[in-house]
Amino acid sequence: MPKICQIEKAVSNIEKLMNVLIRESMTARTAEALSELTVALQRLPKETNDENEVWFDSYDLMKHYKISRTTLYRWRKNKLLTPSYLGQKYMFKKSDIEKILAQAPT
């Protein structure tokens, strides 16, 4: 089962920005890098305290649960499933998906 670790990706992006800050201290790029860092931190999901949570991107979710893109779109449209964002990717918590599937009629 694929595990998507948003925190590790965000930390990697933050480290890259920090390296820019160190190399180009007190420049216009510093202000831009700090702005990018702020945006990256704001995009982190709010529920980061559960280290064991499994996250799926759209592709992995469809593949793992054998659902179509249309089904995923319908779940989002009907607000059954609310994604978090990592850059330009939708990320979904496994626990949220399991709740939807548990409520589905058999």
Q: Could you explain how this protein is built, in words?
A:
The protein is mostly helical. The protein is 58% helix and 10% strand. It has a 3-stranded antiparallel beta sheet. The longest helix is centred in the N-terminal third of the chain and has 18 residues, at 6-23. The relative contact order is 0.15.
Keywords, please?
single chain; mainly alpha; 3 strands
Please report the total strand number as a whole number: 3
CA-to-CA gap between the ends?
24 Å
Secondary structure: helix percent: 55-70%
Please state how the strands of the largest beta sheet are arranged side by side. Answer: 1-3-2
pLDDT averaged over residues:
78
- The radius of gyration over CA amounts to 17 Å
Dominant shape: elongated
Secondary-structure-based class equals mainly alpha
Beta-strand fraction estimate: 5-15%
Tally of separate helices:
5
Q: Ranges with pLDDT <50 over ≥5 residues?
A: none
Biggest β-sheet strands, sense, barrel:
3 strands, antiparallel
Q: What is the succession of H and E elements?
A: HHEHHEEH
Itemize the secondary structure elements and their pairings.
Elements: H1 6-23, H2 28-43, E1 55-57, H3 58-65, H4 69-77, E2 84-86, E3 89-93, H5 94-103
Antiparallel strand pairs: 1-3, 2-3
Helix pairs in contact: 1-2
Explain briefly what this protein structure is.
This protein has helices spanning 6-23, 28-43, 58-65, 69-77, 94-103; strands at residues 55-57, 84-86, 89-93. With 106 residues, it is mainly α.
